[in-house]
Specification:
- The chain is 35% helix and 20% strand.
- It is globular, with a radius of gyration of 18 Å.
- It is of the alpha/beta class.
- Strands 1-2-3-4-5-6-7 form a 7-stranded mixed β-sheet, covered by helices on one side. Strands 8-9-10-11-12 form a 5-stranded mixed β-sheet.
- The chain has 9 helices and 12 strands.
- Strand 2 (39-41) and strand 3 (50-52) form a beta hairpin.
- The relative contact order is 0.12.
- The protein has helices at 2-20, 67-79, 97-100, 103-110, 121-126, 212-225, 236-239, 241-249, 261-284; strands at 33-36, 39-41, 50-52, 58-61, 87-91, 113-117, 147-149, 154-157, 160-166, 175-183, 186-192, 230-231.
- The chain has a single domain, classed as Metallo-beta-lactamase, Chain A.
- Bound molecules: zinc ion.
- Zinc ion binds next to loops.
Length: 286
Amino acid sequence: MKRTASIVLAVLALAGAAQAADPPNWSKPVRPYRVVGNIYYVGSEGLSAWLIPSSEGHVLLDSGPSPAGAKLIEANIQALGFKLSDVKILINTHAHYDHAGGLAQLKADTGAKVWASRADEPALEKGQHFGDNANGATPFAPVKVDKTFGDGQKLKLGETLLVAHLTPGHTIGCTTWTTQVVDRDRPLNVTFPCSASVADNVLVGNKTYKNIVADYRATFATLKALPTDVMLPSHEEQGHLLDKRRKMLSGDVNAFIDPTELARYATTSEEAFDKELARQQAAHKP
Ligand SMILES: [Zn+2]
């Protein structure tokens, strides 16, 4: 018991240490808002969280970096007039602390079930990044996963239908979610891409994630092929969400619509990946 308690404290202390170095906008509150259709932004200024309500309960995508990040999301959900107890399913783009560190708190406060890709489940339940990374394990509060899934899994809750597309590389179980909404009588394809950056992953000689380079390559191809009118990423800067929100507030009803954005995101990510791969290969030459 004592040993478990001290391990928990050590994990929390490390999670706190990671938090101390986080960009300030990850914990900066921002007013929640409806984005398109029935999709609501409930994250902080810098880290996304998306609420998709339905008549049979709500889905929440991503959790912020910590229990405090979860509380910020909860306040946003309530500020929009939704009940925490109506959140039924928690999903996650990937098992990194900045998107998963608040899941345990959200699960405790809402009673929702946690769905995760089969490949990311161990990292979520252990509370640390899987695979060799220059940053180490970057621990976070672990969370029990209730349901695991593979590529193509559908999540149906009331009127909500989400589809999981596995886009591994950034993490081994990185999941891109898609859905369709109707906004001002227009049907729109919405994609929530998992991060595709290298983010200090070891690309050459990764002992615990041997297939990482091939996975990244497949992911870039998958992302380029997904028909997408609205791209809703997990970091503000990946989709210039603040700019779009400002445009929306000044009357631009198409502020979040850009059918070329996801392919551009994939291409930019691939270029950065190629550069980093070449750098790591050069560093490994005898
Ligand atoms: Zn990440």
